[in-house]
């Protein structure tokens, strides 16, 4: 059974992909939940026209994300927080503080698109760390940030 995805489905595909699934999965889960619609001949024609119109907008968004990635490449951000005398951070530093530090530098990045690399999403000690920012489906950029005491 071929279906057109209406939204991203993990381990299956992204929005507007035409995918082949087993009949039961499509008819009993994807279509009733509103995740997909049946890929009939007329639905494929409408889908193709929509994709043609959307391609121009998508290219513009991708170009903007690429330009922002070029600006972010190699940037160093300092996150100031309260620290004990031994170098431990009171609480933790997470993607919200990194997003705030980027906003102070003039970059408006949604905190949900920032992932702190290194195994944990929270930083509990001062030092240098790395974060990955997802700007677009295919465009990701890594930045360095440093946690310092106030």
Give a verbal description of the structure.
- The chain is an alpha+beta fold and 150 residues long.
- The protein folds into two domains: 2-62, Ribosomal protein L9, N-terminal domain (Ribosomal Protein L9, domain 1); 69-149, Ribosomal protein L9, C-terminal domain (Ribosomal Protein L9, domain 2), CATH 3.10.430.
- The chain is 35% helix and 31% strand.
- The protein has three helices and nine strands, in the order E-E-H-E-H-E-E-H-E-E-E-E.
- The chain has helices at residues 23-33, 41-72, 95-104, and strands spanning 2-5, 18-20, 36-38, 76-81, 88-93, 114-116, 123-125, 127-134, 140-149.
- It has a four-stranded mixed β-sheet, with helices on one face. A three-stranded antiparallel β-sheet has the order 2-1-3. It has a two-stranded antiparallel sheet with strand order 5-7.
- The chain starts with a strand and ends with a strand.
Defining key terms:
single chain; 150 residues; alpha+beta; Ribosomal Protein L9, domain 1; 2 domains; 4-stranded mixed beta sheet; 3 helices; 9 strands
CATH homologous superfamily label of the largest domain: Ribosomal protein L9, C-terminal domain
Shape: elongated
Indicate the CATH topology of the largest domain. Ribosomal Protein L9, domain 2
Stretches where pLDDT is under 50 for at least 5 consecutive residues are none
Q: In DSSP terms, counting alpha (H) and pi (I) runs of 4 or more, how many helices? A: 3
Give the strand line-up of the largest sheet. 4-9-8-6
**Biggest sheet features:** 4 strands, mixed
How many structural units, i.e. domains? 2
Residues in β-strands, percent: 25-35%
What is the CATH class name of the largest domain? Alpha Beta
H/E element order: EEHEHEEHEEEE
Helix percent band: 25-40%
By secondary-structure content and strand pairing, the structural class works out as alpha+beta
Return the CATH architecture of the largest domain.
Roll
CA-based gyration radius? 21 Å
Give me the count of strands.
9
**Mean of pLDDT:** 91
- Distance from N terminus to C terminus (CA atoms, Å) equals 59 Å
């Amino acid at each position: 059974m071929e279906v057109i995805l209406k939204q991203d489905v993990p381990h299956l595909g992204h929005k507007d992909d035409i995918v082949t699934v087993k009949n039961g999965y499509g008819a009993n889960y994807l279509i009733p939940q509103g995740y997909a619609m049946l890929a009939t001949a007329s639905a494929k024609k409408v889908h193709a026209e929509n994709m043609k119109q959307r391609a121009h907008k998508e290219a513009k968004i991708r170009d903007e994300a690429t330009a922002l990635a070029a600006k972010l490449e190699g940037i160093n951000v300092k996150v100031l927080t309260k620290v004990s005398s031994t170098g431990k951070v009171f609480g933790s530093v997470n993607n919200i503080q990194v997003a705030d530090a980027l906003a102070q530098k003039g970059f408006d990045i949604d905190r949900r698109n920032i992932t702190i690399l290194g195994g944990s999403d929270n930083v509990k000690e001062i030092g240098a760390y790395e974060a990955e920012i997802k700007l677009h489906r295919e465009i990701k950029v890594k930045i360095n940030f440093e946690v310092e005491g106030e």
